[in-house]
Amino acid sequence: MTVSSPYAAALGRVPVREGTADVLGSTTRFWDYGDPDAATTLVLVHGFRGDHHGLEPVVAQLDGVRMVSPDLPGFGDSTPMTGAAHDVEGYGSWLRAFVSGLGLTGRVVLLGHSFGSIVVAGSLAAASDSARPDAVVLVNPIGQPALQGPRGVLTRLAIFYYWLAAVLPERLGFALLRNRVIVRVMSVAMAKTKEPALRRWIHDQHDRYFSAFSDRRVVLEAFRASVSHDVSEYAARIPEPTLLVAAEKDDITPIAAEYRLQKLFPQAKLVAIPEVGHLIHYETPEAAARAIQDFLKARA
């Protein structure tokens, strides 16, 4: 059964073009939204096990900017990298090369959501002066080690789940990673909205896209990266103006830890969105977009 998106009408008004780029052995698919001649370009990096669809509700709310949204190598429609591992260092190298290959002019802003916040931060911490953006936006940033979050027990269960998927025979391990029941449990645990229609759509999005990875090796490498690193490791090496869009009910990084993270950046602003958890991009994309537009206007 098709579940209609509450953001479909707004997204339908945004022009979109598709493209591919060969980066570190990955045929990377990307979607280029908005005005191609806009003065500001946002490069969007989605979260773990997702693809570009996850950030489309935010894309639908942003005006007057160009947005380039790739599928991370090994996820969605992008093939894995052959020239790097699928860890923070590898994805960081990929991101710098991908952005360089776009040949962008004007103001460039990097935006990362969840695991994408770690990828963006890790990439910038190792970037040369010539490869730096003008500003940074991190949505639901992973601001502390995963095991320290309010649901550390669930993180330990996730570690066991991925360990089991790794030690099982290839076919069984792959099937376990794509198990729809486990995907649904994850989705139910993260959704905070009380709106039945929105909850149904969120679950449908996870059913459709949360298992869109190329193979077991890629998802296991990326998972290990996601629980072994966090943005706080890199914050002090990111001098660019930075916006943190945090959630007051995030089960992965509590809001107190996000405020501690803010202080580690040379210059960062934090906007806390109430009544939402780790799914800002699905549940409150309008609030996220307002925070991003205000941030960009203040630094125009």
Largest sheet: 8 strands, mixed
Give the helix proportion (percent range).
40-55%
Mean pLDDT: 95
Element-by-element helix/strand order: HEEEHEHEHEHHHHHEHEHH
Radius of gyration: 18 Å
Intertermini distance = 44 Å
Q: Which descriptor suits the 3D outline?
A: globular
Total number of strands: 8
The helix tally amounts to: 12
Strand order of the largest sheet: 1-2-4-3-5-6-7-8
Structural class: alpha/beta
Residue stretches low in confidence (pLDDT < 50, at least 5 long) are none
Strand content: 15-25%
Question: Keyphrases for this structure?
Answer:
alpha/beta, 8 strands, 300 residues, 12 helices
Structural commentary:
The chain has 300 residues and is of the alpha/beta class. It has 12 helices and 8 strands. An 8-stranded mixed sheet has the order 1-2-4-3-5-6-7-8, with helices on both faces. A hairpin with a 2-residue loop joins strand 1 (16-23) and strand 2. Helix 3 (88-102) crosses helix 4 and helix 5 packs antiparallel against helix 9 (216-228). The chain starts with 7 loop residues before the first helix and ends with a helix.
Task: Describe the protein's topology.
Blueprint: H1 8-12, E1 16-23, E2 26-34, E3 40-45, H2 56-59, E4 66-70, H3 88-102, E5 107-113, H4 115-125, E6 135-139, H5 152-167, H6 170-177, H7 180-190, H8 196-209, H9 216-228, E7 242-247, H10 255-264, E8 268-273, H11 280-283, H12 285-298
Parallel strand pairs: 3-4, 3-5, 5-6, 6-7, 7-8
Antiparallel strand pairs: 1-2, 2-4
Helix pairs in contact: 3-4, 5-6, 5-9, 7-8
